[in-house]
Write a structure and sequence with these properties.
Elements (H helix, E strand, L loop, with lengths): L20 H8 L3 E5 L2 E4 L1 H20 L3 E2 L5 E3 H7 L1 H5 L4 E4 L5 E4 L4 H11 L8 E10 L14 E11 L2 H21 L4 E5 L9 E8 L5 E6 L5 E3 L21 E4 L6 H8 L7 E8 L2 E8 L6 H7 L5 E3 L2 H6 L17 E4 L9 E4 L5 E6 L9 E2 L18 E16 L1 H6 L2 E3 L5 E3 L1 E8 H11 L1 E2 L2 E2 L10 E6 L3 H13 L4 E4 L5 H11 L3 E6 H5 L2 E6 L5 E5 L3 H7 L1
Parallel strand pairs: 3-7, 15-17, 17-20, 27-28, 27-29
Antiparallel strand pairs: 1-2, 4-6, 5-6, 7-8, 8-24, 9-10, 10-21, 11-12, 11-21, 13-19, 14-15, 14-16, 18-19, 21-24, 22-23, 25-26, 29-30, 30-31
Helix pairs in contact: 1-11, 2-6, 2-11
Length: about 550
């Protein structure tokens, strides 16, 4: 492609709304252009990168035995109503009615639709297993689109759905997809980790996220350097800090006045102690009753862990409206001995062998030297704090680390949730019907583009891995070298190389700056001085390494690279 004909304008200044490098550089280099908040056009260079990621994903899905189909983006809302996800997705879904008043939605994902399709086609155990995937656009009405492609309202996604007879079949499909995902992200040049995750609105009991390691990542994940334990912060846990507590060497419990100090830090300063010696009692609703989550004041309650510690019960943290409805509950001054709490769930750190500062169950008052077992007794124990750096790994006991990452893939074991709701059943060899056992597997293709741009760039611009670059070679003609550059362009193209040929009437400095900004892996410079010696200069974009090649040796040299 000659740059004189390419639909491209590079920018010298960063876009005003860019907060991360991928957004800044993809816009400046002319790969994407913003249309509206969270919506982007993919210009020719960007579309080529998107296609290359899609082809890698397609190859690995096909190799793993999945079959490609293409589903409509517009889906009947009635299917979502049958699973109840129209309500759980809520305002994230783009919903509308046609002229007849029938409800539809722009697809944020496709579990409902693909389940309905399989239910209409397959009915026998002989039909299974089957794994279907598509590469298609998805839509979510994000409250605050940001970070360019990383949190957009329209995004390209590969979503796959496996249907099996039993859990063993599901596990085999899940393992195959997990392995395929590792191949995809490795081929794309990403540094990534697979981490245990919460399933969220998708559902299911088991899920793992693939996180591209990036300082600007919106998600944090926990990992251990000494073993293979890794989880996002929602799903992460730690080894219990105290298995049992020795009796606290504390004096009698004392009630103290703490006016206008409902927060841990203020109370600690007022009493001359530290937040880790103050107990935080977080109110929550458990099946309509009051529960208290009790943790040290320097830690936060993990709501997902809280729910996991009370299986089979409906749990949610109290909101302001709940405190308004319960004026007897002194917000900010609740103690672990509050009368009326159905559940007092304590983190293992509460077993520390010392007394605590706690709320006195009265506004503007706390107590000191409050002792576990003497002054309050939990109804249950659990690991319910958000994991922090240095906590002990639950698998090996080594110190845990926390890094940030960009979620680029997610795999789920769904079970029979969607099959039961949408009638995806099969008949076994004895004539009995069973719901199909499902898994689903998503890869954010447009997110991969952004994640790779975050990892592979420098101060001068993008530096694409060869597998994703829109072109293999960037050929620059400097000065009066048109015939020689044209001949080399034709030779490279005939040899099968995708070449971006800068034949523009522009200054050398502009061409060099654009070449670095666009990030094609190999730059070939045809200049008058070099041609006089019969050589072309080669620069490797990633390393900056330069050398010279004889004009007639360029194509063989690239074939060896």
């Amino acid at each position: 492609m000659r740059m004189s004909r390419l639909f491209l304008r590079t920018l010298r200044d960063d876009p005003s709304d860019a907060e991360v490098d991928s957004h800044r550089l993809l816009v400046r280099a002319g790969y994407i252009r913003k249309v509206a908040s969270g919506l982007y056009s993919w210009l020719p260079l960007g579309a080529r990168v998107l296609q290359r990621v899609s082809e890698i994903v397609r190859e690995e899905m096909d190799r793993a035995g999945a079959q490609e189909l293409l589903l409509p983006i517009v889906q009947p809302l009635e299917l979502w109503e049958r699973t109840g996800r129209d309500k759980s997705y809520g305002p994230l879904m783009f919903k509308f009615e046609d002229r007849k008043g029938t409800g539809f939605a722009l697809s944020p994902t496709a579990e409902e639709l693909v389940s309905a399709i399989v239910a209409g086609e397959y009915t026998s155990y002989r039909d299974l297993p089957v794994n279907l995937y598509q590469i298609n656009w998805k839509y979510r009405d994000e409250l605050r689109p940001r970070f360019g492609l990383l949190r957009a309202r329209e995004f390209l996604m590969k979503d796959a759905y496996s249907f099996d007879r039993d859990l063993a079949g599901l596990q085999a499909a899940y393992d195959a997809m997990f392995d395929a995902y590792g191949q995809v992200f490795t081929r794309c040049g990403l540094t990534f980790r697979a981490v245990k995750a919460q399933s969220g609105e998708i559902g299911g009991d088991t899920s793992q996220e693939f996180m591209a390691v990036a300082a600007v990542g919106e998600d944090a994940f926990v990992w251990c350097e000494s073993c293979d334990y890794a989880a996002n912060t929602e799903a992460a846990t730690r080894r219990p800090t105290h298995q049992s507590a020795a009796p606290a060497a504390a004096g009698p419990r004392t009630r103290v006045h703490t006016p206008d100090l409902p927060g841990v830090d203020g109370v600690a300063r007022h009493l001359g102690t530290s937040p880790d010696l103050v107990l935080k009692c977080i109110a929550f609703d458990v099946d309509g009753e009051l529960g208290l989550a009790v943790v040290p004041g320097d830690r936060e309650v993990n709501e997902f862990a809280l729910k996991g510690a009370l299986p089979g019960q409906t749990v949610r943290l109290y909101r302001d409206s709940d405190f308004t409805a319960h004026p007897d509950l002194p917000k900010g001054y609740i103690g672990p001995d509050f009368v009326g709490a159905k559940v007092v769930l304590c983190d293992s750190a509460v077993r520390a062998p010392h007394g605590w500062v706690t709320g006195a169950n009265e506004i503007d008052h706390h107590t000191t030297d409050t002792v576990l077992g003497r002054d309050f007794t939990p109804t249950a124990w659990g690991e319910i704090v958000v994991v922090a750096p240095g906590d002990q790994c639950p698998s090996c006991g080594a110190a845990l680390r926390i890094d940030r990452g960009i979620e680029v893939g997610h795999v789920f074991q769904l079970g029979t949730k969607y099959a039961e709701a949408l009638g995806a059943n099969y008949t076994d060899d004895a004539g009995e019907q069973h719901p199909m056992v499902m898994g689903c597997y998503g890869i954010g293709i447009s997110r991969i583009v952004a994640a790779v741009a975050e990892e592979h760039h420098d101060d001068n611009g993008l530096a694409w891995p060869a597998a994703l670059a829109p072109y293999d070679v960037h050929l620059l003609a400097l000065g009066d070298v048109g015939p020689a550059a044209d001949a080399l362009y034709s030779e490279l193209t005939a040899a099968g190389h995708a070449v971006l040929y800068d034949d523009r009437d522009a200054r050398p400095g502009v061409k060099f700056a654009d070449a670095d900004l666009l990030g094609i892996p190999v730059q070939l410079v045809v200049g008058t001085k070099g041609l006089a010696r019969g050589v072309v200069e080669r620069k490797m974009r990633v390393t900056g390494e330069r050398d010279e090649l004889q004009v007639d040796a360029v194509v063989p040299a690239l074939a060896r690279a």
